[in-house]
Design a protein that fits this description.
Layout: H1 3-24, H2 29-53, H3 59-82, H4 88-110, H5 119-136, H6 142-163
GO cellular component, one term: plasma membrane
Enzyme class: transferase
GO biological process, one term: phosphatidylglycerol biosynthetic process
Length: about 170
């Protein structure tokens, strides 16, 4: 297993630690959770950078990197719903979008097509990470950034589906 894939796996392994800390109720659990989430988020940037720079792109990485991102973000958002820090309806919309795009990618993959991350997908991921960190650190106006993340999440989902609609329309 190469370094990029180890970083991806490391991100997944940080998720249970994040969940235990954020839901533990210990003093300073939110800032400690923010540190864990930040470390995990940095591995997202690093694994992709290393994979591209050193030609370490693998099928494992193509599959696991986006899955690791979704696991991390979903765990953070669901935990924050439990703590009543974010509204559940927003989290439901975000997670539904992730399922929809993942299913679209699976359909494409079954036809030998790889759907690369779009610029809107990258903006979505960045906005989600920033909004989660702002909520965890209780930075003022985090609600505005959370709304931006929601809008980008919806738009990027629409963009993926629209650009790849031929995969889901019936052909005769």
């Amino acid at each position: 297993m190469n370094l990029a894939n180890k970083l991806t796996l490391g991100r997944i392994l940080l998720v249970p630690l994040f969940i235990v800390v954020i839901l533990s109720g210990i003093k300073n659990s939110l800032p400690i959770s923010a540190i864990i989430f930040s470390i995990a988020s940095v591995t997202d940037f690093l694994d992709g950078y290393i994979a591209r720079k050193y030609n370490m792109i693998t099928n494992f990485g193509k599959f696991m990197d986006p899955l690791a991102d979704k696991i991390l973000v979903a765990a953070a958002l669901i935990s924050m719903v439990e703590l009543q820090l974010v509204p559940s309806w927003m989290v439901i919309i975000i997670i539904c979008r992730e399922f929809a795009v993942s299913i679209l990618r699976a359909i494409a993959s079954s036809s030998g097509i790889v759907i690369a991350a779009s610029k809107w997908g990258k903006y979505k991921t960045i906005s989600q990470i920033v909004s989660i960190l702002m909520v965890l650190l209780q930075i003022p106006f985090y609600n505005i950034v959370l709304w931006i993340a929601l809008i980008l999440t919806i738009y990027s989902g629409y963009d993926y589906i629209y650009l790849n609609r031929s995969l889901i329309t019936e052909k005769k």
